[in-house]
Amino acid sequence: MKIAVVMGGITSEREVSLRSGQAILNSLLRQGYDAYKIDLTKENLVSAFIENDYDLVYLALHGEYGEDGRVQSVLDMLGKKYTGSGVTGSAVAMDKILTKIIAKDLGIRIAKTYGSVEEIDSYPVVIKPAKEGSSVGLYICNTKEEALKAYEVLQNKEPLIEEFIKGDELTAGVLNGEKLGVVRIKPKSGLYDYESKYTVGKTEYECPAQIDEKAYEEASEAARKIHEKLGLKGVTRSDFILKDGKTYFLEVNTCPGMTETSLAPKLATLKGYSFDDLTKIMVESC
Length: 286
Fold this sequence. Notes:
Its EC number is 6.3.2.4. Keywords: ATP-binding, Cell shape, Cell wall biogenesis/degradation, Cytoplasm, Ligase, Magnesium, Manganese, Metal-binding, Nucleotide-binding, Peptidoglycan synthesis. Residues 95-284 form the ATP-grasp domain. It is an enzyme of class 6 (ligase). 34% of the residues lie in helices and 26% in strands. By secondary structure, it is α+β, with helices and mostly antiparallel strands. It has three domains: 2-84, Rossmann fold (3-Layer(aba) Sandwich), CATH 3.40.50.20; 94-109 and 166-284, D-amino Acid Aminotransferase, Chain A, domain 1 (2-Layer Sandwich), CATH 3.30.470; 113-163, ATP-grasp fold, A domain (Dna Ligase, domain 1, 2-Layer Sandwich), CATH 3.30.1490. The strands form three sheets. It has a five-stranded antiparallel beta sheet. The longest helix has 17 residues, at 14-30. The radius of gyration is 18 Å and the shape is globular. 46% of the residues are buried.
């Protein structure tokens, strides 16, 4: 079986994707798989899937044109197998607004959301793109003036406005329906932004999270419910805020990072899976 590890892409998360993809490729080669790299760019966004020879695509793309169902739809039309979630689950999960509506319907606690700056009745708030990850374009606003500026910057990216909940950052993993556990994230800067996520030494990780058992299970089960309801596959990672013993769901990642600082491999170790185990399961469950 020939495996094409597709990485890169044309979004703000390109560099992270390249690092994830290279780590995945190295893992597959270590295990003896016939694998190679495809760097997805604007020039080969569709042709890469038509002109290359492969039996399976291992998707290491983050953000739009990769994690949002569009690449998956191309592969479906070509009749090609790929890792991770399908078109519908990927598309819905990529939209934080839609996902929060579904989470609320499942009885999962979420942060209060506002439809516009004028609706905000209490500060601070978080304003971020509804369809980007890696904390790209995230603003914490303490005043209406700051909120208006942030909203204007993000107006072409469907801004999501929600209350800012100051608490501990948690992430919970699921692998093909199996709950992996929960990790607590401790950024040294106090904010888990892009730099804290992808710079070695900028963040400490409590693995597993040393939190109240009830909150631990609540986050883990909420992640499983979201994974199941959206029909997701492979490994997914759901993010939460923990405040006063209660967890608040933020978003789910259907193609989480696989870099040396990424959370998905850390979560996998809670069930005894190594990095190589994780990539092998992703390949063999397609």
